[in-house]
């Protein structure tokens, strides 16, 4: 009995949506902390959402790298795969760095509005990076058919 559903060529399509959603929700909660009455609690919740986003981004990057060898890749898609891989590595690296910074400054961030404003701005940059990485991945599937046909 296979662990993957028949429509999934590898783990990557099952994992990839977690970092996208967690980072978007983390940013929204962070932005809400600027205006809400429970700013400290929202800042802490956002930090843990970013932690989940970073961990799942690492897993998504690994499963994408490992899964690229298991799917049929049309000739025109090889450049797009390299582009997607570069965006994923940069985005994941910056996200992990952002989480380390957030955890190191967590006490100051939760109390200082200026710190939260800075982190909301940095989070917005990460949100754009995640969107751009996802856009490149979606183009691989929907324009080039990567992952639609197994390499078996």
- Give the beta-strand count: 0
Number of helices: 6
Distance between the termini: 18 Å
Q: Please give the radius of gyration in angstroms.
A: 17 Å
Gross morphology is elongated
**Alpha-beta classification:** mainly alpha
| Biggest sheet overview | none
Helix and strand pattern: HHHHHH
Q: Strand fraction band? A: under 5%
Overall mean pLDDT stands at: 87
Helix amount: over 70%
Unreliable residue runs: none
Task: Name the descriptors.
152 residues, 74% helix, mainly alpha, 6 helices, single chain
Question: Explain this structure to me?
Answer:
By secondary structure, the protein is an all-alpha fold. The radius of gyration is 17 Å and the shape is elongated. It contains 6 helices and no strands. 30% of the residues are buried.
Summarize the structure.
This protein is mainly alpha-helical and 152 residues long. It is built from six helices and no strands. The chain has helices at residues 12-15, 17-33, 39-67, 78-104, 106-111, 113-142.
SSE topology:
Blueprint: H1 12-15, H2 17-33, H3 39-67, H4 78-104, H5 106-111, H6 113-142
């Amino acid at each position: 009995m296979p662990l993957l559903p028949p429509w999934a060529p590898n783990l990557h399509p099952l994992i990839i949506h977690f970092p996208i959603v967690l980072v978007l929700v983390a940013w929204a909660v962070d932005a809400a902390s600027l205006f809400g009455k429970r700013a400290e609690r929202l800042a802490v919740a956002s930090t843990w959402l970013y932690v989940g986003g970073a961990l799942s981004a690492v897993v998504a990057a690994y499963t994408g790298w490992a899964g690229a060898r298991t799917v049929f890749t049309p000739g025109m898609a090889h450049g797009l795969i390299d582009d997607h891989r570069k965006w994923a590595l940069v985005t994941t690296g910056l996200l992990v760095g952002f989480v380390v910074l957030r955890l190191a400054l967590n006490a100051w961030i939760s109390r200082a509005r200026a710190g939260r404003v800075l982190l909301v701005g940095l989070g917005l940059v990460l949100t754009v990076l995640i969107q751009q990485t996802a856009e490149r991945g979606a183009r691989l599937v929907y324009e080039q058919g990567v992952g639609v046909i197994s390499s078996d």
